Amino acid sequence: MGDLSSADRPAIAVKDDLRSVMRTFATGVCVVSTYSDTESTRRHNALTVNSLTSLSLDPPLVALSIRRDSTFVADLLASRVWALSILDGGGEDLARIFARPAEEREKALRSLPAEPGEHTGALLLDSAAWLECRLHDQLVTGDHLLFVGEVVGAGVRDSRSALTFLHGKFRRVDQHAM
Question: 20 to 30 A from 17, CA-CA: which of 4, 23, 54, 78?
Fold first, then answer.
């Protein structure tokens, strides 16, 4: 397949190859939220992710992966809970907002309609579906942390389309066109 064996290839080439390969894998798009508490206030935090994976139905477990250097990680580790808003086809603006720097995300959370989840207190946004999770386990995985969450609440809202990410772009998939 090539002139160099995988052992002889520079690590940077493997990273570039992995990025190219993974761009061809369509993923759903979510906003994950958590918070940090001080004596007098709760500060919410949210982040766009597309790394959600269902792990187990019994017990109900999901996983998500977040860069270790993200400011979101400290809040999630402190609260040990999070909520996931699985975006529908109209959620591209939300996905872009929560892919911005932390200060901009925090400002957006103060102005967007959201409600604290009944089981975790983490914010739920208008979305096609949602999950509330409690930290079950975590694992260092390279430059990311893999968070395994026990699902303690879930729901689905009526939606005609799904938001996906493929080839570096947001795409809508109409469920009725399938």
Answer: 54
